[in-house]
Specification:
Layout lengths: L36 H5 L39 H6 L3 H36 L3 H28 L8 H12 L3 H26 L3 H28 L5 H21 L7 H6 L4 H11 L2 H7 L6 H11 L5 H8 L4 H6 L7 H15 L14
Helix pairs in contact: 3-4, 3-5, 3-6, 4-7, 5-6, 6-7, 6-8, 6-12, 7-15, 8-12, 8-13
């Protein structure tokens, strides 16, 4: 492989997506890694069907016109005087909160679609049968996430919102990237880490029991997807030479910086603010006044903060070194993160969800030990 693919372990060896002939090599069929067997086998434990009411009932009601889905302190724009004063009518304020939640859930839906396409793209390029089977399993799981979030949005709002340009650009880049490391870091670490932080935050705050159940079911899958990236890091990062490590480290830092300063920026929701009679430029100016670096640091003290989860993911993967540690250290206490260990936010929620699914899927195994750790 060329340096841009940075392959350090045979089970991540890859070919061009149109090179199907390489998949027919006879020796390939006798070379299958066992590194993914545990998370492949565990797919039976966390199987669920969004179209089966045994698992989740999308007919469960919620008064979305009169009840806010989340507390308003979760809505950054309402922390500005301009937006808060403009939305003085309680019903309009509720509609604004729930529309902002729609924006978040739409972003999640688009991210799940990206994960589906990326997982499928890995099936075309990874030569190892174990890695390929895992990618195929994840593709199936991401497909049910798309079905489930699309159905939830249709049930509560009718239609999703457009994908924000920053998230869209990142998804397009990593799905189309020929480099396997970009796909794995970009999706399995950054986007999946972002998702786990968002899911945990919404799970702990959403007032809609249907939304809460949906988030937990998805988290039972996502915890394993995150582990796939961790296996790659454990097998790859220690073997990188300084030049290769710098390539990966700098690309990860670039992605993080782009997401940190743009993902939740009001510039990504320009039309949404205008639809409430707000001047988007005034919202942006007010947002910049309250969202200072000090405020970002304060927010990132929360364990479920999506950007804190991203930093912890990269740190535990060994991608962050002294070259970029100071950059991340501007926003989060790196020593504190290191001392937290490798357990991730959302693991407890996912494990409870797996027990719920085991009780449905394997009644005789209900109460069996649950593990989402990759070996």
């Amino acid at each position: 492989m060329t340096i841009k693919n940075i392959t350090k372990d045979a089970m991540y060896d890859a070919v061009a997506p149109d090179d199907f002939e390489s998949m027919l090599e006879l020796d390939r069929y006798n070379n299958r890694s066992s590194a993914f067997d545990k998370i492949i086998s565990a797919t039976h434990d966390h199987f669920w069907d969004p179209l089966d009411k045994t698992y989740i009932d999308f007919d469960e009601p919620f008064d979305i016109e009169n009840e806010p889905l989340v507390p308003e302190d979760l809505i950054a724009a309402l922390q500005t005087d301009y937006v808060s004063n403009h939305l003085s009518d309680p019903k309009e304020r509720t509609r604004f909160i729930n529309t902002m939640v729609l924006h978040s859930f739409s972003s999640i839906l688009h991210g799940e679609q990206g994960a589906l396409n990326l997982s499928a793209s890995l099936c075309h390029v990874l030569k190892d049968q174990g890695a390929q089977e895992y990618a195929a399993n994840q593709t199936r799981e991401e497909a049910r996430h798309v079905t489930a979030f699309a159905k939830y949005i249709r049930t509560r709002w009718g239609r999703p919102l457009e994908c924000g340009p920053v998230l869209k650009d990142l998804l397009v880049e990593i799905i189309g990237a020929p480099e396997v490391y970009k796909k794995i870091i970009g999706m399995q670490m950054l986007v999946e880490g972002l998702a786990m932080g968002a899911f945990a935050t919404f799970f702990n705050n959403i007032r809609d029991p249907l939304g809460k159940k949906l988030l937990q079911l998805v988290m039972t899958d996502e915890a394993f997807h995150h582990k796939f990236g961790k296996i790659w890091a454990d097998r790859t990062v220690p073997k990188l030479d300084p030049e290769e490590h710098a390539i990966i480290e700098d690309w990860a830092a670039h992605c993080f910086q782009t997401l940190l300063f743009n993902l939740v920026s009001p510039t990504q929701q320009y039309d949404l603010y205008a639809s409430f009679g707000l001047d988007p430029e005034k919202v942006i100016a007010a947002f910049q006044e309250v969202m200072t670096d000090d405020k970002r640091r304060e927010n990132m003290r929360e364990s479920a903060n999506i950007f804190r989860v991203l930093v912890k993911t990269l740190l535990n993967a060994g991608i962050i070194t002294d070259r970029t540690r100071a950059f991340y250290g501007m926003y989060v206490d790196m020593d504190e993160l290191k001392n937290e260990g490798e357990r991730m936010v959302g693991d407890d929620i996912a494990e409870d969800g797996i027990r719920y699914l085991q009780a449905i899927n394997f009644k005789d195994r209900a109460g069996a030990p649950v593990s989402i750790a990759a070996e």
